[in-house]
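Suppose a classmate hands you a notebook page containing two proteins, each written out with its sequence and a corresponding row of structure tokens. How would you begin to make sense of it? This section walks through that situation. The first entry is reproduced here exactly as it would appear on such a page.
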Amino acid sequence: MFGDLQGMMGKLKETQQKIEETKKRLDTVFVEGSANQGKIKITVSANRVVKNIAIDSGLLEDKEELEDYLIIAMNDALKKANTINDAELAAAAKDGMPNIPGLDMFK
């Protein structure tokens, strides 16, 4: 019994390490959200950290319009980043989970 427990604990430790490695890798995966036919572009990492904002100078005249488009572009970028982040971390967790009865939710 304790051999199985040690094996499971080792497997859980490996899974945690895979998850941490995946998080580091996701810092280097970038997605772009845009609005107004690409006049505003926001680049974020898959870990949801804003890396760049590019704004067409023609949008600088109307503050409210600019704010609206920034929100649209930011939400677009974050949605894409969330999708990648969730899929990658779920895959890392699933691959490393030991076969523990009752924890089928990861399979």
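The notebook's second entry, a different protein, reads as follows.
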Amino acid sequence: MIRPALSLVGLLAALTVVPAASAAGNSDYSVLIISRERLEVATTCEIGVYLNDQLSGRVFQEQSTSFNLPPGPVDIRLRLLPGQAPGCNPGLENQHNQRLTLQAGQINKYRIAMDHSGLHLTRASLDY
């Protein structure tokens, strides 16, 4: 009886030494979610997401991607990528960037849309 009691006390003492994992508190990154869930872009081609001029993600129809980024400004460019589907050669495109300023601990959701000037991001609600 004494041995199990000592084992229990030792286990409880060990648990107090190990810090608990927590998602709360000050976070030093921002979450950026880019979705293509709506059918606003009338193409089956995949869309490349370039962060600071580096291909960082690919988004197909009805998908989304997310990034954990440091706070501060980030330049985002969207572009059609050549792929498996016929007719997905990008050709000449408007190569404009959108600059977003991210705050630490913030979750930002944008959806991909298209207009006469090409692909761009529009703010979306989180809807959780």
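A careful reader of the second entry would note: The chain is about 10% helix and 40% strand.
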